[in-house]
Write a structure and sequence with these properties.
This protein has 11 helices and 12 strands. By secondary structure, the chain is α/β, with parallel strands linked by helices. The strands form 2 sheets. Strands 1-4-5-8-9-10-11-12 form an 8-stranded parallel β-barrel, surrounded by 8 helices. A hairpin with a 7-residue loop joins strand 2 and strand 3. The protein is globular and about 80 Å long. The N and C termini lie far apart (46 Å). Bound molecules: ligand PBG.
Length: 331
Amino acid sequence: MSLLRLRSRPRRNRNDAVVRAFHSETHLGVQHFIYPLFIHGGEVDVPIGSMPGCSRLSPAGLLREVERARAVGIGAVVLFPAIDDALKTPDGRESYNAAGLIPRTIAALKERWPELVVVTDVALDPYSSDGHDGIVGPDGRILNDVTVEALCRQAVAQARAGADVIAPSDMMDGRVGAIRDALDQEGFTGVSILAYTAKYASAFYGPFREALDSAPRSGDKKTYQMDPANSREALRELALDEAEGADMVMVKPAGPYLDVIRRVREATTLPVAAYQVSGEYAMLKAASERGWLDERRVVMESLVAIRRAGADVILSYFARQVGEWLAGERR
Ligand code: PBG
Protein backbone atom coordinates (compact mmCIF):
# COMPACT_ATOMS: atom_id res chain seq x y z
CA MET A 1 0.00 0.00 0.00
CA SER A 2 1.43 3.37 -0.93
CA LEU A 3 0.97 6.35 1.37
CA LEU A 4 -0.98 9.29 0.11
CA ARG A 5 1.38 12.26 -0.10
CA LEU A 6 -0.70 14.67 1.95
CA ARG A 7 0.85 17.69 3.65
CA SER A 8 -2.47 18.58 5.08
CA ARG A 9 -4.23 15.97 7.19
CA PRO A 10 -7.13 17.62 9.05
CA ARG A 11 -7.50 14.50 11.19
CA ARG A 12 -4.35 15.43 13.15
CA ASN A 13 -6.36 18.22 14.75
CA ARG A 14 -8.86 15.61 15.90
CA ASN A 15 -6.26 13.28 17.40
CA ASP A 16 -7.43 13.45 20.99
CA ALA A 17 -9.78 15.32 23.28
CA VAL A 18 -7.20 17.88 24.38
CA VAL A 19 -6.31 18.89 20.84
CA ARG A 20 -9.94 18.87 19.78
CA ALA A 21 -10.77 21.21 22.65
CA PHE A 22 -8.10 23.71 21.42
CA HIS A 23 -10.27 24.64 18.50
CA SER A 24 -13.83 23.81 19.51
CA GLU A 25 -15.76 26.81 18.19
CA THR A 26 -19.14 26.61 19.85
CA HIS A 27 -19.94 26.53 23.53
CA LEU A 28 -23.15 25.61 25.23
CA GLY A 29 -23.71 26.50 28.85
CA VAL A 30 -26.62 27.07 31.21
CA GLN A 31 -26.21 30.81 30.65
CA HIS A 32 -27.49 30.30 27.09
CA PHE A 33 -30.98 29.15 28.05
CA ILE A 34 -34.44 30.49 28.69
CA TYR A 35 -36.65 27.73 30.09
CA PRO A 36 -40.28 27.72 28.81
CA LEU A 37 -42.84 26.53 31.34
CA PHE A 38 -46.56 25.83 31.06
CA ILE A 39 -48.74 26.90 33.95
CA HIS A 40 -52.37 26.64 34.94
CA GLY A 41 -54.48 27.58 37.94
CA GLY A 42 -55.24 23.98 38.97
CA GLU A 43 -53.94 22.29 42.08
CA VAL A 44 -52.01 19.45 40.43
CA ASP A 45 -49.45 19.17 37.65
CA VAL A 46 -50.99 17.71 34.50
CA PRO A 47 -48.56 15.88 32.18
CA ILE A 48 -48.67 16.88 28.51
CA GLY A 49 -49.11 13.76 26.39
CA SER A 50 -47.14 14.90 23.35
CA MET A 51 -44.34 16.41 25.45
CA PRO A 52 -43.11 13.69 27.83
CA GLY A 53 -41.39 15.29 30.80
CA CYS A 54 -43.41 18.53 30.55
CA SER A 55 -46.58 19.36 32.48
CA ARG A 56 -49.05 22.12 32.92
CA LEU A 57 -47.71 23.15 36.30
CA SER A 58 -49.76 24.13 39.33
CA PRO A 59 -48.53 27.16 41.30
CA ALA A 60 -46.69 24.83 43.70
CA GLY A 61 -45.40 22.66 40.86
CA LEU A 62 -43.97 25.73 39.13
CA LEU A 63 -42.00 26.75 42.22
CA ARG A 64 -40.63 23.20 42.49
CA GLU A 65 -39.60 23.12 38.82
CA VAL A 66 -37.98 26.57 38.94
CA GLU A 67 -36.12 25.55 42.09
CA ARG A 68 -34.70 22.52 40.27
CA ALA A 69 -33.75 24.62 37.23
CA ARG A 70 -32.07 27.25 39.35
CA ALA A 71 -30.14 24.58 41.23
CA VAL A 72 -28.31 23.76 37.99
CA GLY A 73 -27.82 27.40 37.01
CA ILE A 74 -30.76 28.24 34.74
CA GLY A 75 -31.36 31.96 35.23
CA ALA A 76 -34.37 32.74 33.02
CA VAL A 77 -37.84 31.30 32.43
CA VAL A 78 -40.65 32.15 30.03
CA LEU A 79 -44.24 31.50 31.06
CA PHE A 80 -47.15 30.17 28.99
CA PRO A 81 -50.59 30.00 30.62
CA ALA A 82 -53.42 27.53 30.07
CA ILE A 83 -56.51 29.62 30.67
CA ASP A 84 -59.95 28.32 31.72
CA ASP A 85 -62.33 28.20 28.77
CA ALA A 86 -64.79 30.28 30.81
CA LEU A 87 -62.33 33.19 30.73
CA LYS A 88 -61.76 33.10 26.96
CA THR A 89 -63.45 35.82 24.90
CA PRO A 90 -63.24 37.10 21.32
CA ASP A 91 -61.23 40.14 22.49
CA GLY A 92 -59.00 38.16 24.86
CA ARG A 93 -59.43 40.71 27.62
CA GLU A 94 -58.27 38.27 30.31
CA SER A 95 -54.77 38.85 28.86
CA TYR A 96 -54.58 42.21 30.66
CA ASN A 97 -56.37 41.28 33.87
CA ALA A 98 -53.97 42.55 36.55
CA ALA A 99 -55.17 39.74 38.85
CA GLY A 100 -54.90 37.06 36.15
CA LEU A 101 -52.81 33.90 36.20
CA ILE A 102 -49.71 35.41 34.60
CA PRO A 103 -49.44 38.54 36.79
CA ARG A 104 -50.03 36.43 39.93
CA THR A 105 -47.38 33.97 38.84
CA ILE A 106 -44.80 36.64 37.98
CA ALA A 107 -45.30 38.21 41.41
CA ALA A 108 -44.89 34.84 43.16
CA LEU A 109 -41.68 34.08 41.26
CA LYS A 110 -40.15 37.52 41.82
CA GLU A 111 -41.01 37.44 45.50
CA ARG A 112 -39.18 34.16 45.97
CA TRP A 113 -36.29 34.87 43.54
CA PRO A 114 -35.91 38.61 42.81
CA GLU A 115 -32.93 37.93 40.54
CA LEU A 116 -34.69 35.32 38.38
CA VAL A 117 -35.23 36.75 34.88
CA VAL A 118 -38.91 36.36 34.08
CA VAL A 119 -39.86 36.52 30.41
CA THR A 120 -43.52 36.74 29.42
CA ASP A 121 -45.30 35.95 26.18
CA VAL A 122 -47.43 38.65 24.60
CA ALA A 123 -50.18 37.34 22.29
CA LEU A 124 -53.88 36.71 22.69
CA ASP A 125 -54.16 33.02 21.75
CA PRO A 126 -54.33 31.53 25.27
CA TYR A 127 -57.10 34.03 26.09
CA SER A 128 -58.98 34.09 22.78
CA SER A 129 -62.15 32.07 22.28
CA ASP A 130 -61.07 31.96 18.61
CA GLY A 131 -57.62 30.59 19.42
CA HIS A 132 -55.90 33.32 17.42
CA ASP A 133 -53.02 35.56 18.47
CA GLY A 134 -55.11 38.58 17.50
CA ILE A 135 -58.72 39.72 17.42
CA VAL A 136 -60.76 38.18 14.60
CA GLY A 137 -62.73 40.64 12.46
CA PRO A 138 -66.18 40.09 10.94
CA ASP A 139 -64.68 38.66 7.74
CA GLY A 140 -62.56 36.17 9.68
CA ARG A 141 -59.34 38.14 9.19
CA ILE A 142 -57.15 39.15 12.11
CA LEU A 143 -57.44 42.84 12.91
CA ASN A 144 -54.00 44.37 13.32
CA ASP A 145 -54.28 47.73 15.03
CA VAL A 146 -56.97 46.92 17.58
CA THR A 147 -55.01 43.79 18.48
CA VAL A 148 -51.89 45.90 19.08
CA GLU A 149 -53.85 48.02 21.57
CA ALA A 150 -54.75 44.88 23.54
CA LEU A 151 -51.14 43.65 23.36
CA CYS A 152 -49.91 46.94 24.83
CA ARG A 153 -52.29 46.56 27.76
CA GLN A 154 -51.12 42.96 28.23
CA ALA A 155 -47.45 44.02 28.17
CA VAL A 156 -48.02 46.81 30.70
CA ALA A 157 -49.92 44.43 33.03
CA GLN A 158 -47.01 42.00 32.87
CA ALA A 159 -44.41 44.72 33.49
CA ARG A 160 -46.42 46.03 36.42
CA ALA A 161 -46.41 42.52 37.94
CA GLY A 162 -42.62 42.43 37.66
CA ALA A 163 -41.75 40.89 34.27
CA ASP A 164 -38.19 41.62 33.15
CA VAL A 165 -38.53 40.83 29.46
CA ILE A 166 -41.66 41.13 27.33
CA ALA A 167 -41.73 38.76 24.36
CA PRO A 168 -44.40 39.48 21.74
CA SER A 169 -45.06 36.28 19.77
CA ASP A 170 -48.14 37.52 17.92
CA MET A 171 -46.53 38.81 14.68
CA MET A 172 -48.82 41.87 14.37
CA ASP A 173 -47.31 44.79 12.45
CA GLY A 174 -46.02 47.66 14.56
CA ARG A 175 -46.43 45.94 17.90
CA VAL A 176 -42.82 46.28 19.06
CA GLY A 177 -42.84 50.07 18.74
CA ALA A 178 -46.30 50.38 20.26
CA ILE A 179 -45.36 48.16 23.21
CA ARG A 180 -42.11 50.13 23.71
CA ASP A 181 -44.08 53.39 23.86
CA ALA A 182 -46.70 51.92 26.20
CA LEU A 183 -44.05 50.56 28.57
CA ASP A 184 -42.10 53.82 28.58
CA GLN A 185 -45.23 55.87 29.18
CA GLU A 186 -45.93 53.83 32.30
CA GLY A 187 -42.37 54.26 33.52
CA PHE A 188 -41.11 50.79 32.55
CA THR A 189 -38.10 52.03 30.59
CA GLY A 190 -35.97 49.24 32.05
CA VAL A 191 -38.19 46.41 30.85
CA SER A 192 -36.78 44.74 27.71
CA ILE A 193 -38.49 43.56 24.55
CA LEU A 194 -37.52 40.23 23.02
CA ALA A 195 -39.28 40.31 19.65
CA TYR A 196 -40.38 37.15 17.88
CA THR A 197 -38.96 38.63 14.69
CA ALA A 198 -39.14 35.72 12.29
CA LYS A 199 -41.88 33.46 13.56
CA TYR A 200 -43.02 30.97 10.98
CA ALA A 201 -46.48 29.45 10.42
CA SER A 202 -45.13 26.09 11.52
CA ALA A 203 -46.65 22.66 12.07
CA PHE A 204 -43.99 22.17 14.74
CA TYR A 205 -46.18 24.13 17.22
CA GLY A 206 -48.70 21.28 17.41
CA PRO A 207 -47.80 19.90 20.87
CA PHE A 208 -47.70 23.45 22.33
CA ARG A 209 -51.27 24.07 21.18
CA GLU A 210 -52.30 20.78 22.75
CA ALA A 211 -50.52 21.81 25.96
CA LEU A 212 -52.45 25.06 26.19
CA ASP A 213 -55.57 24.00 24.33
CA SER A 214 -54.97 27.10 22.20
CA ALA A 215 -55.30 25.88 18.61
CA PRO A 216 -57.19 28.21 16.24
CA ARG A 217 -60.88 27.30 16.18
CA SER A 218 -60.98 28.14 12.48
CA GLY A 219 -58.47 28.98 9.78
CA ASP A 220 -54.73 29.07 10.30
CA LYS A 221 -52.09 31.64 11.28
CA LYS A 222 -50.72 32.27 7.79
CA THR A 223 -51.92 35.89 7.55
CA TYR A 224 -49.59 36.85 10.40
CA GLN A 225 -46.91 34.17 10.81
CA MET A 226 -44.31 33.79 8.05
CA ASP A 227 -44.23 31.36 5.13
CA PRO A 228 -41.68 28.57 5.80
CA ALA A 229 -40.46 29.04 2.23
CA ASN A 230 -39.12 32.53 2.95
CA SER A 231 -35.97 33.96 4.48
CA ARG A 232 -35.56 37.44 2.87
CA GLU A 233 -38.78 38.38 4.64
CA ALA A 234 -37.05 37.68 7.97
CA LEU A 235 -34.67 40.55 7.22
CA ARG A 236 -37.56 42.90 6.57
CA GLU A 237 -39.12 41.96 9.90
CA LEU A 238 -35.71 42.37 11.54
CA ALA A 239 -35.24 45.90 10.17
CA LEU A 240 -38.66 46.90 11.49
CA ASP A 241 -38.18 45.35 14.94
CA GLU A 242 -34.78 47.04 15.29
CA ALA A 243 -36.20 50.41 14.24
CA GLU A 244 -39.11 49.97 16.66
CA GLY A 245 -36.76 49.40 19.59
CA ALA A 246 -36.46 45.63 20.08
CA ASP A 247 -33.66 44.72 22.51
CA MET A 248 -33.34 41.14 21.29
CA VAL A 249 -34.72 39.32 18.27
CA MET A 250 -35.86 35.75 17.80
CA VAL A 251 -36.14 33.10 15.11
CA LYS A 252 -38.71 30.35 15.62
CA PRO A 253 -38.69 27.35 15.18
CA ALA A 254 -34.94 26.79 15.50
CA GLY A 255 -33.67 23.44 14.15
CA PRO A 256 -35.41 23.54 10.75
CA TYR A 257 -34.52 27.26 10.35
CA LEU A 258 -30.77 27.35 11.03
CA ASP A 259 -30.20 29.27 7.79
CA VAL A 260 -32.57 31.99 8.98
CA ILE A 261 -30.78 32.19 12.33
CA ARG A 262 -27.51 32.65 10.43
CA ARG A 263 -28.95 35.36 8.15
CA VAL A 264 -30.43 37.26 11.09
CA ARG A 265 -27.18 36.86 13.06
CA GLU A 266 -25.21 38.43 10.21
CA ALA A 267 -27.66 41.28 9.74
CA THR A 268 -27.90 42.54 13.33
CA THR A 269 -25.73 43.51 16.29
CA LEU A 270 -28.56 42.68 18.70
CA PRO A 271 -28.60 39.45 20.70
CA VAL A 272 -30.31 36.70 18.70
CA ALA A 273 -32.57 34.12 20.33
CA ALA A 274 -33.88 30.90 18.80
CA TYR A 275 -36.82 28.83 19.99
CA GLN A 276 -36.48 25.05 19.87
CA VAL A 277 -40.24 24.53 19.79
CA SER A 278 -42.59 21.89 21.11
CA GLY A 279 -42.52 19.77 17.93
CA GLU A 280 -38.73 19.67 17.90
CA TYR A 281 -38.84 18.53 21.53
CA ALA A 282 -41.52 15.93 20.79
CA MET A 283 -39.53 14.43 17.88
CA LEU A 284 -36.35 14.07 19.90
CA LYS A 285 -38.22 12.67 22.90
CA ALA A 286 -40.29 10.18 20.92
CA ALA A 287 -37.32 8.74 19.04
CA SER A 288 -35.27 8.58 22.24
CA GLU A 289 -38.05 6.81 24.14
CA ARG A 290 -38.10 4.14 21.45
CA GLY A 291 -34.38 3.74 21.71
CA TRP A 292 -33.95 4.99 18.15
CA LEU A 293 -31.78 7.93 19.19
CA ASP A 294 -29.44 8.49 22.12
CA GLU A 295 -31.35 11.26 23.91
CA ARG A 296 -28.52 13.05 25.61
CA ARG A 297 -26.23 13.10 22.59
CA VAL A 298 -28.89 14.07 20.10
CA VAL A 299 -30.31 16.83 22.31
CA MET A 300 -26.87 18.34 22.92
CA GLU A 301 -26.09 18.16 19.20
CA SER A 302 -29.37 19.85 18.27
CA LEU A 303 -28.61 22.68 20.70
CA VAL A 304 -24.96 23.14 19.69
CA ALA A 305 -26.15 23.36 16.09
CA ILE A 306 -28.53 26.18 17.00
CA ARG A 307 -25.72 28.02 18.76
CA ARG A 308 -23.34 27.40 15.84
CA ALA A 309 -25.89 28.87 13.45
CA GLY A 310 -25.65 32.10 15.44
CA ALA A 311 -28.10 32.03 18.33
CA ASP A 312 -26.90 33.66 21.54
CA VAL A 313 -29.74 32.32 23.63
CA ILE A 314 -32.03 29.30 23.18
CA LEU A 315 -35.54 28.75 24.43
CA SER A 316 -35.75 25.00 24.99
CA TYR A 317 -37.91 22.59 26.95
CA PHE A 318 -34.69 20.65 27.56
CA ALA A 319 -33.10 23.55 29.48
CA ARG A 320 -33.28 22.08 32.99
CA GLN A 321 -32.26 18.64 31.75
CA VAL A 322 -29.26 20.13 29.92
CA GLY A 323 -28.32 21.99 33.11
CA GLU A 324 -28.33 18.67 34.96
CA TRP A 325 -26.19 16.98 32.30
CA LEU A 326 -23.69 19.84 32.32
CA ALA A 327 -23.53 19.86 36.12
CA GLY A 328 -22.85 16.10 36.00
CA GLU A 329 -19.91 16.69 33.63
CA ARG A 330 -18.38 19.25 35.98
CA ARG A 331 -18.45 16.85 38.95
C1 PBG B 1 -48.46 31.68 20.43
C2 PBG B 1 -47.22 30.89 20.64
C3 PBG B 1 -46.99 29.65 20.05
C4 PBG B 1 -45.77 29.21 20.52
C5 PBG B 1 -45.26 30.18 21.39
N1 PBG B 1 -46.18 31.23 21.45
C6 PBG B 1 -47.85 28.83 19.16
C7 PBG B 1 -48.45 29.44 17.98
O1 PBG B 1 -48.03 30.46 17.45
O2 PBG B 1 -49.45 28.86 17.53
C8 PBG B 1 -45.18 27.89 20.12
C9 PBG B 1 -44.11 27.33 20.99
C10 PBG B 1 -43.85 25.90 20.79
O3 PBG B 1 -44.39 25.23 19.88
O4 PBG B 1 -43.05 25.38 21.58
N2 PBG B 1 -48.42 33.02 20.65
